[in-house]
Each structure stands twice: as C-alpha cells, then as structure tokens.
Amino acid sequence: MKLPVSEFTYFLRGEARKNLKILIAYVLFLTLMILFYAQLFVLLMAVLEDNHYSFATGIYWTVVTMSTLGYGDYVFTTDFGHLFSALVTFSGVIFMLILLPFGMISLFLAPWIEQRLRYRPHSMLAEDYRNHIIIFGYDTITRALIRKLVSHNTPYVVVCIDPNQAYKLEEEGLNVVVGSPTNVHFLKNIQVAQARHIIANLTDPLNTNICLTVRSFSDTPIATLVDESDRSDLLRLAGANRAIPLKRILGSYLASRATTMGATAHILDAFGKLLIAEMPVKSTPFVGQTLAQAQIRQQTGLAVIGLWERGTFTVPEASSLLSPKALMVLAGTREQLQSLEMFAEEQEGADRIMVLGHGRIGCSAASYLERRGIPFVLIDQKNNPDCMDHITVIGDATTHNLLQESGIEEAKGLIVTTNDDSTNIFLTLASRRHRPHMRIVARSNNEENVEQLYAAGADFVVSNASVGANILNNVLEGKESIFLTEGIDVFRTQLPTTLVGMTIAESQIRPKTGCSIVALEPPDSSDPIVSPPPETVLKEGYGLILIGSPDEEEDFSRRFRSAL
Ligand code: ADP
Ligand code: ZN
C-alpha cells in the first residue's frame, strides 16, 4: 500500500504519539544494553583471553552477536566466554528480534491499519442540514475558497468521488462526503435542495451533468467554473446560474498587464453603466505627472481608483506620481473611457510579447494580444490541440538558448504561464537576469508561490487560486463586487437611509468605515456620478459604488445594516 506523506502525521498525534515515546524509551534501553555488553566484552576478552580490543570493536561484536549474525571474527575460547556469548545472543533474540518488532506492530502498525479499516466516509448529511455550500472538485481554487468560508463560519462540504482522497482531506480537517456527483439519490442525501449554493469545479462535461442532475429536483443556485469559455452557454443551458470562464479571465488579466502600451483600456468588469478598467500609464500623455497635475477627472470624468506598480496596488492620492511602468485602474462610463483613449496614442515601435505556455490561459492571453494587434511569440513544449489559431514555437522554454533564439532580446514583455510553478519561477528569474527592464508577468498556480515569483523578479503575479476563490466567494455572498487584488474589492450597495440628505463629507463614510466612494448611481438609469466631490448631496434611491478591503466592506454593512 502506498503511504502518502500526510499519513505520517498519524504517528505524531494522540495515542500514537504516546506510543512513540515508549518506543524511544525502549530504543534508549536497547542502546544502553549494547554499550554495557560492549564494555563487558572488552573487559572479559582482556581478562579471560588476554586479547585487547577497542570499545568500538566491543560495540561491533555485541551488535553482530545480538542480531544472531555471528560472523565469528572475534570469538571467546574459554567456557565463561562462551556463556557470556550465549547470554548476549539470548538477550538479542528477546529484546531485538522479538520485543522490538512486536512493539512496532502492536503499537503502530496494527492501530494504524485498524483506523484505516474503521474509516467509513460519510455519504449523507442530516435531514435538517441546510444553508451549506456544496463543493464538487477540490483543487487550489476551492482550497482557497474553503479557507474564506471557514473564516466566516459558513458551513460547507466537499464532495469526493474517491474515498482515499476523502480520507486524506478529512485528516486535514475538512468536511467531506463521498459519492457520485451525478447520482440523484446521493445528491438528495447531502441535502442539495436545502443547500445555499453549489460550486461545480470538475471537468466541463461533469459540471454539465451535475447541473442537469441537480436541476431535475431542485433549484439551488449553481456556480461553475468553465475551462473553455465558449461552453458557458452550454452550462447555463444545463442549469448553471453562473458559468465563470476563469482561464479566459486569467489569460486576459496576464496579457493586459504584460503590455505597457495599448491605447485601449482593458475592461475588468462593470456595475451597470460604470466600467472598471485598467490602462497602462505609458500610452497616455500623463507620464511623469502627479495625479493632481494630470487632471484626468477634469478632462475625462474618469476616476483613477488604483495604481499598480511592480505588483503593488495603491489607492492613489493627489500627489501620486504616474510612472511609465504603472497601470491605472479607472472607473467611469464607456464614453469617459473613450475620451481618455483619445488622449492615448500608440507608442512608436509596438510592443512585442513572449508567451511561455500555450495552455488555456496562455491561449487566452494570446487571443487578447491578437485582438489588440500586439505582436507576440508563443512557446510551448507541444501543440495545443484545442487551438487552431496560434502558431507555437515548440520547445521546452527552460532549455538553454530557446528564449534567445525566439527573440527574447526584442521582447518588451513576457508572460510566464506554464502549469508548473517551479518552471515559472525559474523562467522568471532567468529572464529577469537577462533583461532587467522587461515587463514580466507570471501565473502562480499555488497561492504559496506568489512571493517566490515576485522575489524572482516578476512585475506582476496573478494567482489562479486567489482570483478564482475571490470570484467564487463574491458569487456566494451575492455581492456585486469586483476583485482587484487580495484585500481590495470594488462593490455596490444601496445608500443607507440614515445618510439621505447628507453631503458626502457629512456622511463620514470614509473616516468611519475606510471605504471610499467611487461613484453614485442615480435611481433613474442616467449616467453614474463618478468620483463625486465631498459637497455632493446623497439623495434617496442612490446606489453607492465603494472601494475598500473586505473588512472595511463588512464594517460598512454592519454599521448600516438596519438602514440598508
Ligand atoms: P492551463 O490550461 O491552465 O493554461 P495547461 O496545463 O493546459 O494549463 O497548460 C500549461 C502549458 O504549459 C502546457 O501546454 C505545457 O505544455 C506548457 N509547459 C509546461 N512546462 C513547459 C516548459 N518548460 N516549456 C514550455 N511549455 C511548457
Ligand atoms: Zn491558442
């Protein structure tokens, strides 16, 4: 039987831990016995046989004799010597060959096997179980999501198909059930109809099947991640309420951050007419100016709600400098964005981007660049069977010279998006050493590797797990919010009735909750008022679009709960 690393932790807990102490004491006793016999051997050999041996030889002789190996290279010739040898052999048989293995089996192996045999995974939940989140498919994304759910005390259950995986996850302290995700009887047993939400995170065909099966008897909302974005419609047809093309989103995130040019803004998301978009500072005439000098709001009506620079997001102040490497996060209407795009101009000598890895994320990044007319080179070990649109340089990106031969010297940006984080870290480090000023964006498959990628020299790291988990979490909480980075959301809420008639300054929203107002949405579907000045009066029926951390967001809803 294969013994996964996690199962060693079994020996460090509870009864097993106590037994481990007994074993250590026993081994200590055995060692002392060997040392004692070794000393006696040296002494007896000298007295009885007039042979003078070292203590080390004594240890060697004792171990060889106790284990009944008996090479016979050191032997006694006297009767007393023979008796001593017999005693040592006898002790060895009892203490080394019988008691030691017996102790190992009865204290460790037998209880461990017993525990494994006793393990019966749950395959149902109590009938009064309700409002839980059911998660199909455990990976880095759902793992990050579960961490969020646990911190909010939200009940959840992970559905495993394989009992061995269930055992492992349960050992890690997760709530797990085992069963077939497309078996109606099982789904009814885990109280699907009473669940708050379902997350389907398996393959597209399996997710489709789950949606259809659930819809045959319940209308619990389902959010599903889709691998191929053109299947979103299919999943919605099967009954999914939300089909999230995560890989496509990640690909365009990476691509938009790899170019320092591009005269069009990259729209991240929208609240009605209010768009949240990103645009590189470099393509605008505001490079080198402070936000106050640039007068972007006065000239275009747009609000600059964030600045990305070398992977750090800041909420800008009037004195913030618009450096050529920075990326602005903007809020405004489509017309306002267009008026900024009019100022922006394509730079001389277009960007040339290298994309390492042509999986779904790399392919989505390539499509993004293609749509914007930005030239790119794709490198992958193999052809992508699902993509007929892009030509790929075939080769291992880590091999010496392949990047040079493919033109890394001329590239302005690099997108590192293989499915292996170590490869991504290696490629980032190697490229950064080679090209200190190139813009490097990297994908991190595991949240734990974000730091290493920045340390290796990435300007920007997009973590699949945290983007995915945040999108899912927002769906679950029914929040209308847009994830900008870990710890910063843009979200929509109603105007608390207690604030009606006050000016923004009087409302004290920012000093009290830390959230800032990005825009006001008038009740008649007219254009949002972007970045309203402090003297703006808050009128009844207004929607508020705020920016803040999840804690500040929670503080806002707690403070105004009764007035929302
Ligand atoms: P996703 O669909 O999430 O982007 P995939 O696993 O489909 O993930 O894609 C990752 C791609 O990265 C694969 O096509 C794989 O061949 C490629 N890849 C992995 N390591 C290397 C490497 N050292 N050099 C070039 N391509 C690589
Ligand atoms: Zn492609």
What would you say this structure looks like, in words?
- Helices cover 41% and strands 18% of the residues.
- It is of the alpha/beta class and 564 residues long.
- The longest helix has 40 residues, at 79-118.
- The strands form 4 sheets. The chain has a 6-stranded parallel β-sheet, with helices on both faces. The protein has a 6-stranded parallel β-sheet with strand order 14-13-12-15-16-17, with helices on both faces.
- The chain starts with 13 loop residues before the first helix and ends in a 5-residue tail after the last helix.
- Helix 1 (14-49) packs antiparallel against helix 3 and helix 9 (246-258) crosses helix 13 (360-371).
- It contains 20 helices and 22 strands.
- It is elongated, with a radius of gyration of 33 Å.
- Helix 7 (204-215) links the parallel strand 4 (197-200) and strand 5.
- The structure holds adenosine-5'-diphosphate and zinc ion.
- The site of adenosine-5'-diphosphate has 19 residues, from helix 13 and strand 13.
Please report which band the strand proportion falls in: under 5%, 5-15%, 15-25%, 25-35%, 35-45% or over 45%. 15-25%
Cα(first) to Cα(last) distance is 58 Å
For the biggest sheet, the summary is: 6 strands, parallel
Number of helices: 20
Mean pLDDT: 88
List each distinct ligand once: adenosine-5'-diphosphate, zinc ion
Overall radius of gyration: 33 Å
* Fraction of residues in helix: 40-55%
Kindly name the structural category.
alpha/beta
Tell me the strand order in the biggest sheet.
3-2-1-4-5-6
Low-pLDDT residue spans: 1-6
- What sort of overall outline do the alpha carbons produce when their principal axes are compared? elongated
Count of strand segments: 22
